[in-house]
Write a structure and sequence with these properties.
The complex is a heterodimer.
Chain A (H helix, E strand, L loop, with lengths): L1 E6 L6 H10 L3 E6 L10 E4 L19 H11 L3 E5 L1 H8 L6 E3 L7 E9 L15 E8 L3 E3 L2 H9 L3 E5 L19 E5 L5 E4 L17 H19 L1
Parallel strand pairs in A: 1-2, 1-3, 3-4, 4-11
Antiparallel strand pairs in A: 5-8, 6-7, 6-9, 9-10, 10-11
Chain B lengths: L1 E8 L6 H12 L12 E6 L4 H16 L5 E7 L1
Antiparallel strand pairs in B: 1-2, 1-3
Amino acid sequence: MNFAVLQFPASNCDQDAIHAIQVTGHSARYVWHKEKSLGGVDAVIVPGGFSYGDYLRCGAIARFSPVMQAVQEFAANGGLVLGICNGFQILCEAGLLPGALIRNRSLQFRCEHVLLKTLTTDSAFTNRIPPDKILSIPIAHGEGCYFADEATLERLKANNRILWRYCSAEGEVTESANPNGSLWNIAGLCNERRNVGALMPHPERACEPLLGSADGRLIFESLIGAFQNKAIAKAV
Amino acid sequence: MKAKIIITPKKAVLDPQGKAVQNALEHMGYKGVRAVHVGKYLEVEISGEKESVRQQIDEACHKLLSNPVIEDYHFELE
């Protein structure tokens, strides 16, 4: 499977994303933000960082990069797109995912491991995650407080589109487990078609036991699983 | 022509910066501060006929300069 990892000025998790994909035994290459084509890849990672210096709003300027037009078309054709941290902010700004990510309620930049509860295995991003497993994955952000209006939240819940919520070690969704003030402890979600997803935590930083957790690998393996299932479905 | 654009967080959106500034004002002894909202101020220098500039700035505010999910905007031309 071939992944594209987008590179904007001041992306800084692009190399980690490439490494994480290679750890799973698949290939990945960088796609510069000025490119107008993704070059026939199977999935796109919009990585973390501070694209365009976070000027104006996080992700606001990156969303108008030429490569994002290609990502819009790729997603509209059912292509798999995963946004991580700044990538989540960019996908929200681009309208590929609903809501917005605003300043952490504490006003602090939070950089630590958090625990995540997976709400559904029915997505391209969660199909390989054991249902009761609590994931330990690090966050590193100042603007990760998820916000959406009430109607959007209800729609997300009704369509089973909330993929991960911040939780305690016991798997309870509590105020103290919420590192940034996100609405309903939301850490990640997907679009209606379930082919575009994103999360604030960094799975690419948790793909090997040496890094303290290999739980993030399950998210990349889910993407690979979704792609392989689609290929099987096509072949049949 | 100059467009003076003010962008503020929507009422329903948490504004922790505004809250922190409000707390600071209270600690300094300012009485009766009911709320503080922290937003952005932009100036765009642009040439053209006033009505067309107004339309362009409005569109730019909607598409890029503000995020309608979390922010409101208004502007003046002078």
